[in-house]
TrEMBL record:
Residues 108-264 form the CEP76 C2 domain. Residues 10-71 form the CEP76 N-terminal domain. It is found in: Cytoplasm, Cytoskeleton, Microtubule organizing center, Centrosome, Centriole. This is Centrosomal protein of 76 kDa. One of its GO terms (biological process) is regulation of centriole replication. One of its GO terms (cellular component) is centriole. It comes from Branchiostoma belcheri (Amphioxus).
């Protein structure tokens, strides 16, 4: 097992601090002194004290056993019950493909807190996969992966082959702790557990042979019925429904066992549990009803301001993947990425690497609109512009920016969403979530005379109907909704009509019963970028060699030239992240030195969001420039290819590839 140097230094420091706390050094010195004294007075005196003698002396005095006991990294609980302990591991990923050399950590189980053990014992009745074709020899067939989210803890199962009765056999240990320390972190009894209204969010993803993912189901599991089980556990069949337009169609059934560990002393009566669940449901329904009544009144007032307001894109509610209408403000929540993302621009780059795909429909007609919950979007790693914008806005809010989601149209008059941030001076900046680009907004004054030079907008947006985040909602009531002339001063009631923040807080606030699951934490990438880059580069070399062989050409690779392409790929990624490029002068100097006089150099860089070498090579050949390089003919032809994979959270990758060649020019 190989650990990075910073991890080794951190581990050494932890061990040193622990040994210092136990006063081990002085005890070892005393033991060594006593051993040497005993050696001098023994019959064998005069001989040197060996290492084995010292270790045996330490073992006899119990020092080694005590050190091992105190420094144990197993799942044994701490002896000090009052000391706060770490929660269970938030995410377990058993990726079968390339990943880092760091092994999966064991969950730190604290016996002073309750846990919910969710055991999936298999699936059945996935009728759509009744006649799943057998994969070709050596080919990986389509798979199912089950993702679980509960109170900020994320897990996922091992991929299993798609089948009518998929063999999903997994167990998930979910901590039921109350947030906080002291009394709030002590062992929760049955009554306290009944007050935890967070459901278990289960998302099933299908991955096909090409690596494309599809969202099959998004299910909220109510787990509190287990509190009334006499044996401490229940077995139940969970019927999974489809998503979007198929939300009323069953997808399959999972056999699930729920168990509370340790078992509560008190068992609640089923009537008590049912009463609590019904009470929560009625409270949710009442809040939603009151908000709907308020929204209707607010909309009538908005239409009275200006007759043309009815044609503007003012989005108050949106349907999630389960076809449930939810206030758009409930999709956004400040999200901090920990140490996974360092800057807002890096967050924008990360989100732009998540695949863009419109919600599909069966048959023709207008495109289906589906705003996925953040957990379903991250599990799928694919979504529409609304999903990208909501996640970007949440991350920018987490970075402390004044961010909003904008709903409007693009220059081609198609519906679109993007993100807006406001500076302290009121300057507006647009963030395009699909590309990571930023645009500064300077409103045009239509009353200025023609001689006054107006700023030329660079952004691809035509109109804006409303903006919102997790706390506020504003509808555009300016004379025109054209972005070029809009002012984004939300305190000006003549330009923007605001919803009541109290009304929004009643359905989207922190203290309300959740309309959906808590927002998930981001997970670090498990891929080793160096290993990924090397393997992908080797595959591309094989494909290029075979391609040239079919053309009757030989292939000679220049390893030194391939290495010299690395700074260019790093500069391209830096430019996409920060908007600035550096190192171009040094790259050009190195290439000039590597290309002899009388030779010609050609290069072609390209970026992909996937790691499929064959797909990437086919995409490169669509470019005439790349085709010319790969099929280069001439004297002393030398080819080069360099791959650089940049990893981001949630298994997102930016794959940069550069093909190059040098050859002697013949006139």
């Amino acid at each position: 097992m190989a650990l990075p140097p910073e991890k080794i230094s951190e581990l050494r420091q932890i061990i040193h601090n622990k040994l210092t706390q136990m006063d081990v050094h002085s005890r070892i010195r005393d033991a060594v002194s006593e051993t040497m004294e005993e050696s001098r007075v023994s019959e064998r005196g005069g001989g040197a004290v060996g290492e084995e003698q010292v270790l045996e002396s330490l073992r006899q005095r119990g020092i080694i056993d005590e050190i091992l006991s105190e420094m144990s990294f197993e799942e044994e609980p701490s002896r000090d019950v009052s000391r706060p302990t770490k929660p269970a591991t938030h995410f377990v990923d058993k990726e079968d493909r390339i990943k880092t050399s760091t092994p999966a950590k064991k969950a730190a189980i604290d016996p002073t807190r309750r846990h919910l053990y969710l055991q999936v014992k298999g699936g059945k009745a996935f009728l759509e996969h009744l006649q799943e074709p057998e994969p070709l020899p050596g080919q990986v067939g389509p798979t199912f992966t089950l993702h679980v989210l509960f109170r900020g803890q994320r897990f996922r199962s091992k991929p299993v082959p798609c089948a009518c009765d998929p063999d999903i056999q997994e167990g998930f240990l979910l901590e039921l702790h109350n947030k906080g320390s002291g009394e709030a972190a002590q062992m929760a009894d049955s009554t306290s557990l009944l007050s935890i209204c967070d459901p278990v969010h289960m998302v099933l993803i299908k991955t096909d042979v090409a690596g494309d993912t599809a969202l099959l189901t998004s299910h909220y599991l109510e787990w509190r019925h287990v509190l009334g089980a006499q044996d401490g556990y229940i077995n139940t069949a969970v019927e999974l429904m489809g998503v979007g337009t198929e939300s009323k169609v069953p997808v399959g059934v999972l056999d699930v066992r729920l168990e509370i560990l340790p078992h509560p002393v008190q068992t609640l009566a089923p009537d008590v549990i049912t009463t609590q669940l019904n009470l929560e449901q009625s409270r949710r329904a009442e809040r939603e009803r009151l908000f709907l009544v308020y929204a209707k009144q607010w909309w009538r007032e908005f239409l009275q301001i200006r007759g043309t307001n009815s044609s503007r894109l003012v989005k108050i509610f949106a349907q999630d993947e389960n076809a449930t209408n939810r206030p758009v403000c409930s999709f956004v929540r400040p999200l901090q990425a920990g140490r996974l993302l360092d800057t807002p621009r890096q967050a924008a780059r990360f989100i732009s690497l998540l695949t863009y795909e419109k919600a599909s429909t069966v048959g023709g007609g207008p495109r289906a609109e589906q705003w996925c919950t953040m957990h379903a979007f991250l599990c799928r790693n694919k979504g529409d512009c609304e999903d990208h914008s909501v996640l970007l806005c949440s991350l920018l809010l987490g970075f402390g920016l004044d961010a909003y989601v904008c709903v409007g149209t693009k220059t081609n008059n198609t519906a679109h969403t993007w993100v807006l941030t406001l500076g302290m001076d009121g300057e507006a900046t647009f963030w395009e979530s699909l590309t990571g680009h930023r645009y500064s907004h300077q409103p045009i004054n239509p009353d200025d005379p023609p001689t006054v030079e107006q700023p030329r907008p660079q952004y691809p947006y035509r109109s804006v109907g409303c903006v919102f985040n997790h706390q506020v909602f504003y509808a555009n009531s300016q004379p025109t909704d054209t972005v070029e002339v809009c002012h984004f001063n939300f305190t000006d009631e003549s330009r923007w009509k605001a919803m009541s923040e109290e009304a929004i807080k009643s359905v989207c606030g922190e203290g309300t019963l959740p309309l959906g699951p808590v927002f998930p934490p981001l997970c670090a990438s498990l891929f080793d970028p160096g290993l990924l880059s090397a393997d992908l580069e080797l595959e591309l070399r094989v494909l290029v060699t075979e391609h040239r062989k079919d053309l009757g050409l030989t292939t000679v690779w220049d390893n030194e030239l391939s290495y010299l392409l690395t700074p260019a790929l790093a500069a391209y990624e830096q430019e996409r992240t920060t908007g600035q490029i550096s190192g171009n002068e040094e790259f050009q100097q190195a290439i000039r030195r590597a290309v002899p006089d009388g030779h010609t150099f050609k290069g072609f860089p390209i970026q992909f969001l996937h790691r499929n070498a064959r797909r990437a090579f086919a995409g490169c050949l669509r470019s005439p420039v790349c085709e010319e390089i790969v099929s280069c003919r001439g004297d002393h032809v030398r080819l080069a290819v360099r791959v650089r994979v940049f990893t981001y959270p949630e298994q997102a990758c930016a794959v940069w590839i550069m093909f190059a060649c040098k050859y002697r020019s013949i006139l």
